[in-house]
Amino acid sequence: MAVTIHQLTKWKQTGRSIISLTAWDYSMAQILDRAGVDLILVGDSLAMVGLGYSSTLPVTLDEMIHHAKAVCRGVDRALVVCDLPFMSYQVSVTQAIETAGRMMKETEASGIKLEGGQPKMLEIVKELTTIGIPVMGHVGLTPQSFRILGYKQQGKIEEEANLIIDRAIALEQAGAFSIILEHIHSELAGKISSKLAIPTCGSGAGNQCDGQVLVTADFLGLSERQPPFAKSYVDLRQFITNAVEEFKQEVQNKKFPSK
Ligand code: KIV
């Protein structure tokens, strides 16, 4: 049965962890979906891991939609959520509705994700959920703000930690169905998770979240560089390099193709 936003909340109530990975193309989405991933995020990390940009800032809405469509074509069961890219929603509520509306109309995604929990973002989340667009929040390290925050762990001092807690609570009240907690201390993530009825998904936020999300390029060992909190479950870079080496040898030695 296809995963719904309501299912995620039910899983939180029963203590069933949410398994989430990113995807940016059809074949990867199909593999992840068939392997039992619950939530597939078309993250704007696509900018770096799929398109070779140096940050998430340059990726455009058209690029995100193009990849989201491919991902959705590969998925039967998982909930697909797409990031709204930098400057496609921060300008105004109207801009956010138009952008999220395009994402929902042009792809088969079940919801969108946006970064931040400041008052303007809360207004945007409220409006989007009111018109029927499910929203996933994202607090802690928000990479679209890296020019101010850097990529370091957030919420280290009490004031900052309290602000992150307040923003997570406010996002839930505004209607978000789930929140990504990125690169914050495990205790802080645990505190936030216990205060919310909606599930949290951690990325570099310890093991007290209601689910975990990894960027698939990191998870598979495809990235040249990855954040310190990411874990690679396989070294696909090496695996592919070895396969190319074997192909080269076989072609040069006329072993492939056979007669
Ligand atoms: O864009 C992304 O991949 C993300 C991560 C937190 C998973 O937002």
Can you walk through the features of this model?
By secondary structure, the protein is α/β, with parallel strands linked by helices. The protein has one domain (5-252): Phosphoenolpyruvate-binding domains (TIM Barrel, Alpha-Beta Barrel), CATH 3.20.20.60. It is built from eleven helices and eight strands. The chain has helices at residues 5-14, 26-34, 46-49, 61-73, 93-106, 119-130, 146-149, 158-174, 186-195, 216-219, 236-252, and strands at residues 18-22, 39-42, 79-83, 111-113, 135-140, 178-182, 200-203, 211-214. An eight-stranded parallel barrel has the order 1-2-3-4-5-6-7-8, surrounded by seven helices. Helix 2 crosses helix 4 and helix 6 (119-130) runs parallel beside helix 8 (158-174). The radius of gyration is 19 Å and the shape is globular. The N and C termini lie far apart (47 Å). Residues 22, 41, 43-45, 83, 180, 182, 203, 213, 215 line the site of 3-methyl-2-oxobutanoic acid.
